Automatic annotation (TrEMBL):
The UniProt record lists the keyword Oxidoreductase: yes
Gene3D superfamilies, sorted: NAD(P)-binding Rossmann-like Domain (3.40.50.720)
SUPFAM superfamilies linked to this entry: Formate/glycerate dehydrogenase catalytic domain-like (SSF52283), NAD(P)-binding Rossmann-fold domains (SSF51735)
Keywords, comma-separated and alphabetical: NAD, Oxidoreductase
Name this protein carries in UniProt: Oxidoreductase
Amino acid sequence: MRKKIAIIGDRFMLPEVFREKIEKACGGNLDIRTLEAAWPDKPMEFGNAALGLDKVKEYFGDPDEVVNFIGDAEIFVTQLAPLSETMMQRLPTLKLVAVSRGGPINIDMAAAKAHGITVVNVPGRNASAVAEFTIGAILAETRLIRVGHEALRKGEWRGDLYRADRTGRELNEMTVGVIGYGNIGTKVVRLLRAFGCRILVTDPYVQLSAEDRNAGVELVALDELLSRSDVITLHPRVTEETRGLINKDTIARMKPGVIFINTARGPLVDYDALYNALVSGHIGSAMLETFAVEPVPADWPLLQLPNVTLTPHIAGASVRTVTFAAEQAAEEVRRFIAGLPPVNPC
């Protein structure tokens, strides 16, 4: 009997890439249907009690349209489409949901368990992309790339940036603090080692790899990292423990003039406290890739500061992220069809 697979991709995680990887992994005898959602050209939504999606953190797609599309499929592959309790009640044949994200935050996981639906995800799918982006962000701030670029765009030749009292610093003379040593943090550390900088890591739940220890990377408490680091870059997950981790108190413990990088998640930061520190100069400059509210309001005060680089949450976006995530999802589909346990169950 042909396995029925419903795929909802979007304009990043292309449905045809999912199909290609699944067909390559599983061979024939598949009944696959695909749908392309309009994200990221249109913004995603967040938990909505009125639609019965209050247990879904972020998603893209109308619940009725998603249910109608999945129909009698046994396997559903997606990135952003929501699945709530009431939606699952209408999908009695659904047995596997493969979410091509680091976490299944568009799925009501308690409901999935209650309905006997296996949910799998792709942890670390964009770890390499975010790590590379982070290094670029650090270099943009330490070597004044943003400052020089913005001046030239305005027709101003900033020759004064060659002055000893205004020029940037090299990473090989700096201490970089990495908060969070998971899939992304470990890759950031590995890339940083090539620059010869001193590297501090804080993460209460992990130990350094032997390779990093031998390279001189130090595992320290958060307070020590804050006080010693010339550059601080965030890479923890958002939990109750880490929400608002960067706040008035932790900023006060940072070295004056520190460079701050956030390519992780917006809720990790108190942006009012960050704004005040950037205005006062206690934080010398910042590169911000994620925000508490996305898209950011046009009148957001941080958009007006000259010592901030901002990008629209694109660190994890790369062609390799697309293909890698689709390959991992396809492998989970293959294992399900073959009766094997999942690699990354949620």
